[in-house]
Every structure is written in structure tokens, then in C-alpha cells.
Amino acid sequence: MLPTLEKFIAGMPKAELHLHIEGTFEPELMFEIARRNKRKIRFNSVEEVKEAYKFNNLQEFLDIYYEGANVLIEERDFYDLTWAYLQKVHAQHVVHVEIFFDPQTHTDRGIAFATAINGIHQALEDGEKQLGISFKLIMCFLRHLPEEAAFQTLAEAMPFKEWIYGIGLDSSEMGHPPSKFERVFEKARQEGFVVMAHAGEEGPAEYIWEALNLLHVARIDHGNRCLDDEKLVQVLAERQIALTLCPLSNLELKVVQTLDGYPIQQMLDNDLLITINSDDPAYFGGYINENYLGIARPLNLSKETLAQLAKNSFRASFLSEEEKDRMIAKVDAYCASFTI
Ligand code: HPA
Ligand code: ZN
Fold first, then answer.
1. What is the residue-averaged pLDDT of the chain?
2. CB 221 less than 6 A from any atom of ligand 1
3. What is the per-residue pLDDT across 60-81, written as a single tens digit (0 to 9) for each?
4. 140: Cβ below 6 Å to ligand 1?
5. Which residues have a catalytic role annotated?
6. Core-most of 86, 111, 145, 320, by most CB within 10 Å?
7. How far is the CA of 105 from the centre of ligand 1 (A)?
8. Across the beta sheet with 166-170, what order do the strands follow?
9. Domain CATH number, residue 36
């Protein structure tokens, strides 16, 4: 029997808006795919891999995350990766996902853009049909690479435009401000893509301003550092630009030292549209429910607050207004009917 809080979180309908599909690569599946593709990995066991997942900052994580992705070769590998994630979150009552993929991580190793996206897209289609999980796929540019490489990736994406809803920006934040990608984001918007960017995870509030004013983002991924700038908080709140927070990621990458002081209440009090997400669950010790629980316990969050966060996940999504209202009503109905 699950304790009440866990049970409440587990059964609540939710959307996940900040999830890197390459970050869902569990060591067991990594070994299996490496074996069938006859690729070596430098670890001898699942335990050894897990032991290596201790990070002091974003870069230490990224180095190992890109290494893990190296064993993904065939379309089927991308399918299996995505399907495993969908099954996992289906069991956690996630009903809508907006997931990132990093094409450059694959194309730079000689894997065709089509191979990666065909596998991911097919699994998402199957997830919608078989598990009832609706989806949007978002392609990220790697910000440690030049803007020219992002232009090239955008061009490669064009034959798959119908499958790609939005464009994001991820990888090493410090020293790679949103301004570096102003022109390619303008082109992406002209092509009709919705855009968002990781900003204010390790980088300063200034990077969030740049994402808003230069990239014209619809959402900020992470955005923790907005709290350093009162005016920025006001603007994010007025415009209801969502922040996709990832508590366990922040803890594991030392963006925060503990979850005891995670500023959920401060952000809600400031009218920020915040959501809870898992980022790279295979690396950070938990999927979406573990992220909700990770803050619910130390912060002693009420069921109302947790439900607010779940409702925010739909409000901040790219679903239609009708779909959002329908999903939010489902969260309310779940709360009303929840009994210990
Ligand atoms: N930040 C930046 N890039 C990333 C992350 C993240 O948390 N996860 C995967 N790529
Ligand atoms: Zn992320």
C-alpha cells in the first residue's frame, strides 16, 4: 500500500513538458542495445553505470549523457528508447508529453536525421494509439555547437516538419547565451515552429531575458535563476510564460543543494506558471512522480498545491485551449474523488 501522498501523486493526470528522450536511457536498455549493435561501453555492469551517475555540474552530466547516446544506431533503437519511456510514464498517469530530442547528438556521429526521428515518431504514434498518451515532439539545438550547425540541422528537419512541433535549445549553458542563436531562432519562427530555450539553469537571469527578447520563446526550460531579478519575475508572471522546473535534475546537478528550500511557494506567490518535470530521469533518479514527491515531502506541499502544479502542466502545454480545459477538469475531478 502506497502512503497517501504517494498515492495521490501517482494517480493524478499529468503532462510532462521537459523531457529529453536521450535522458530516459536506462542502463539495462543501454546494455541490451549496445550488445545487439556490437558497441562497447566502458562499464561492465548496470551497477557500475549507476555508480558513475554522480555529477557536480551540468557539464559532468552532459559528458556521460552524450556517451550513453552513442550506442543508438538503428531506427529500432530510437523506437525502443521512446517506447520504454512511454510505458513508464503511462504507469505514472502521464497523459500528454512534449518531449525533446537532440538530432545533432546523432547526426554528428553519422546517424541519419531520419533514423532518429522515424524511430521516435513511430513510438509516439503507437503510444497515442495504445496508451492514450498525446504528444508533441520538440527538436533542440545543441548550444555548445556553432549557430551554423543549428542552421544545418534546421534544414535537415524540414522534410519532417509535420512531425516537429517546436524548437528548443539545450546543452552547456554557460558561455553559450541565447543571443548566439538569435538568427536561427528567427528562421525557425518564420517556418512556423513554436520556440523555447533552456535558460537560467546554471546561467544568469540575463540569459532568460535574452530568451524572451531575442528568441521570443513561448516557454523557459528550467528558469530557476529568474528569482534573482524582480522585474523578470514580474514580466514572466504578467505574460504567463511557463517555467518547466526539474527538481531532481537541479539537485543532482547542484543547481540547488537540497530540495528543502526549493522555491515552489515563492514562485506560486509571484504568480509564475511553474510546472514539474523530470528532464533526464534515467540519470537523475526519478521520473515525473518522483519529482513531484521529491518536493512534496520536504516542502510539505498540500494536495491543492500539487493539483495546481498538475493543472499548470496542462495550462503550460501546447494543447488547444479546449483540450487544456478538459484536462484541467479531469485533475479537479480526480481531486474531488480522491479518498485515502
Ligand atoms: N540542461 C541542458 N541540456 C540538457 C539538459 C539540461 O538539463 N538535459 C539534457 N540536455
Ligand atoms: Zn533539460
1. 97
2. no
3. 999 999 999 999 999 999 999 9
4. no
5. 201
6. 86
7. 12
8. 14-16, 94-101, 134-142, 166-170, 194-199, 219-222, 242-245, 274-276
9. 3.20.20.140
